[in-house]
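Example for tutorial group B:
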C-alpha cells in the first residue's frame, strides 16, 4: 500500500492510512472538496464516519471499502455542505447519529448523541475525544484520536485548516472565540507531530501551522 498523503480528489480513490489499531480512509465527496473520513477499528471491524457530506453512493462504497457496515456518523457542524448525505446514510445503515449539542437541531435527522467538550465517542476498541471549537458554528466539534503507538490524529471539520482557522464570516466575536479555542484546546495541549484532517482540502500537522498562530490572530481571519 502506498504511503498516506491525504491528497484526494472528487471522483477519485480514497487515501488510506493504517495505524496499529485504527484504519483511516479519506475521500472527497463533492465539488466543494468536502472530505469524508471513515474510521475502522482494526480489532472489531466497527466503523465511524465523519461528515456524510455528499454523494451517498460514494459514501456507501467507502463503507464497503472497510468492513461493510457502519456503526456511527459524526457531523462536525451544522453547515449544509457537511450533511447533504446524512439522511440517506442513516436510512441505509441504521448508524447512530452524533453531533455537537448546539448544532444538533439544525441537522436533517434526529441526533441521538449530543456532544459537548470533553465527551468521549467509542466504537469497537477505539476512543475519540471531543474538542469543541466554537466560532465557525456554535456547536462545531473536532475529534481526537490518541494513537498509543504514534502521533495523535485530529479531525477538525471546518474549524482548522492548513493556513488558518475556519471562516467566521466577518464576525469579530466569533473569530476571537474560534482562535482562542484553537490555541488553548489544540495547540496548547497537543504535540507538533499531531496530524490534522480538515473538512475540505489537504491535511497538515500542528507543527507546520504553529509558527503562524500570531499571524492568524493579527489578520483577523
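The residue assignment follows.
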Amino acid at each position: 500500500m502506498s504511503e498516506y498523503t491525504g491528497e484526494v480528489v472528487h471522483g477519485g480513490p480514497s487515501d488510506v492510512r493504517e495505524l496499529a489499531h485504527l484504519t483511516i480512509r479519506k475521500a472527497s465527496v463533492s465539488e466543494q472538496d468536502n472530505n469524508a473520513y471513515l474510521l475502522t477499528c482494526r480489532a472489531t471491524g466497527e466503523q465511524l464516519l465523519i461528515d456524510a457530506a455528499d454523494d451517498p453512493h460514494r459514501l456507501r462504497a467507502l463503507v464497503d471499502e472497510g468492513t461493510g457496515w457502519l456503526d456511527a456518523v459524526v457531523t462536525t457542524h451544522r453547515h449544509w455542505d457537511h450533511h447533504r448525505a446524512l439522511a440517506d446514510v442513516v436510512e441505509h445503515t441504521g448508524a447512530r447519529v452524533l453531533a455537537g449539542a448546539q448544532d444538533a437541531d439544525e441537522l436533517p435527522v434526529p441526533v441521538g448523541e449530543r456532544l459537548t467538550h470533553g465527551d468521549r465517542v467509542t466504537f469497537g476498541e477505539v476512543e475519540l475525544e471531543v474538542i469543541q471549537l466554537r466560532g465557525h458554528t456554535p456547536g462545531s466539534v473536532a475529534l481526537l484520536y490518541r494513537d498509543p503507538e504514534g502521533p495523535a490524529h485530529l479531525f477538525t471539520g471546518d474549524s482548522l485548516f492548513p493556513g488558518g482557522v475556519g471562516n467566521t464570516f466577518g464576525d469579530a466575536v466569533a473569530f476571537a472565540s474560534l482562535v482562542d479555542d484553537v490555541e488553548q484546546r489544540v495547540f496548547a495541549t497537543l504535540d507538533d507531530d499531531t496530524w490534522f484532517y480538515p473538512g475540505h482540502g489537504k491535511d497538515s500537522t500542528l507543527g507546520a501551522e504553529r509558527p503562524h498562530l500570531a499571524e492568524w490572530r493579527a489578520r483577523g481571519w
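The mean pLDDT is 97. Compare this with the pattern of hydrophobic and polar residues in the output above.
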